[in-house]
Specification:
By secondary structure, the protein is mostly helical. Helix content is 69%, strand content 0%. The chain has two domains: 1-40, no CATH class; 47-196, Four Helix Bundle (Hemerythrin (Met), subunit A) (Up-down Bundle), CATH 1.20.120. 27% of the residues are buried. The longest helix is centred in the C-terminal third of the chain and has 25 residues, at 172-196. The chain has helices at 23-37, 49-70, 75-98, 100-105, 111-133, 135-141, 154-166, 172-196. It contains eight helices and no strands.
């Protein structure tokens, strides 16, 4: 299997044959853990988690990958990154909503704790539906592509939003968390397929 990594970027190559932890990879994981749950201002204890996820798993992930592949950046990958990142933030929001009682006892101040259950549901709806609004500027930025195909995942997003409004705290939120990630995957797949075809 091919190794995917680039020593110039500080990314540790990974392969199916070699899953051992190198000292550098271990240091990377330790630094990530320190940033998220340790240090003077851990993100997981603050209301900045969703914003962090939007920025790094959305904009940086999509636009950064585009830049690595093409050597340039423009507005389309940034808009696409925001759309993907909104879904990623929704995944974290469901997790934080599910764990709100335990997190509050542990001293965490996540968005779900700060704004309450009702506002969390409305924020979740916004995070799940706003990516579809990003399709309009993407279609203008990429007129020869078929990125509008991602709208086909909208009924699934709407269905999971309705379910989230009805679900009580408990194990049922685990299924919503998984479905949220599945909607993100479907949207991303359709967006990419529409961009290349």
């Amino acid at each position: 299997m091919t190794d995917y990594g680039d020593d110039r970027l500080g990314i540790e190559p990974v392969s199916a044959a070699n899953r051992t932890r190198s000292p550098r990879n271990t240091m990377q994981l330790a630094a990530e853990k320190e940033f998220c749950v340790g240090g003077p201002f851990p993100i997981s204890y603050s209301p900045l988690g969703e914003l962090f996820v939007l920025a790094f798993f959305g904009v940086a992930g999509v636009a950064g990958t585009y830049w690595l592949a093409c050597g340039a950046i423009g507005p389309a990958p940034i808009v696409a990154g925001v759309a993907i990142g909104l879904f990623a933030a929704a995944v974290l929001l469901v997790n934080n909503h599910r764990d709100r009682v335990e997190d509050a006892r542990a001293g965490r101040r996540t968005v779900a704790i700060l704004i309450g259950a009702d506002a969390t549901r409305w924020l979740y709806a916004a995070l799940m539906l706003a990516p579809f609004l990003a399709l309009a500027p993407l279609m203008r930025l990429m007129p020869d592509a078929h990125v509008g195909a991602a709208i086909l995942s909208a009924p699934f997003a709407l269905a999971i939003v309705v379910r989230f409004f009805r679900e009580r705290l408990g194990r049922g939120l685990n299924a919503i968390l998984a479905r949220t990630a599945q909607v993100q995957l479907a949207f991303a797949f359709l967006l990419c397929a529409g961009a290349i075809l």
